[in-house]
Each structure stands twice: as structure tokens, then as C-alpha cells.
Amino acid sequence: MLKSFKTEINPTDEQKVRIRKTIGTCRFIYNFYLAHNKELYESGKKFMSSSQFRVWINNEFLPSHPEYSWIKEA
After folding, report:
1. Which ranges carry the Transposase putative helix-turn-helix domain (predicted)?
2. Where are the domains of the chain?
3. Residue-wise pLDDT tens digits, 37-67
4. Is residue 40 within 8 Å of 48, Cβ to Cβ?
5. b/e for 27-64, b at 16 or more Cβ within 10 A?
């Protein structure tokens, strides 16, 4: 016999805002990763792995682009 459990969450308004920011940031980073790899491919370079991208975005891109500081808030 299989059992299942239903769970319902009821986040507060503050938690809803935080969830939306986090999901939006994840979506942006994923699309940015795809676009960056597309640029690398078109210029004849090798694809960047997700771990290489993480190092690049945190150590090179974000420090030189302060307009994207909202990424660190999520």
C-alpha cells in the first residue's frame, strides 16, 4: 500500500517577496549562463561549465558590474 502526504505552505507576505526574488534571480542567472555560453560558442571557444561560470560570475563579472549587485541579495 502506498501512502502519500499533502503539505500546504502559507508563507507570509515578506516570505512571498523573498521567494519571488530568489526565483527571479535564478531565472536571470540561468538565462545569462545560456547567453554567455552562446557567445563563447559563436566566437569559437569552449563551453563554460556551471562551476566555471559560478567562479567567473562571482570573481570577475559581479565586481566589475555594480549594477548587478541585486544578484547578491537573493
Report:
1. 1-46
2. 13-73
3. 999 999 999 999 999 999 999 999 999 999 9
4. yes
5. eeeeeebeebbeeeeeeeeeebeeeebeeebeeeeeee
DSSP-assigned states of every residue in 6-67? -------HHHHHHHHHHHHHHHHHHHHHHHHHHHHHHTTPPPPPHHHHHHHIIIIIHHH-GG
Burial bucket for residue 18 (CB in 10 Å: 0-12, 13-18, 19+): middle
Percent of the chain with pLDDT over 90: 93
pLDDT at position 37 is 96
Residue type, 44: G
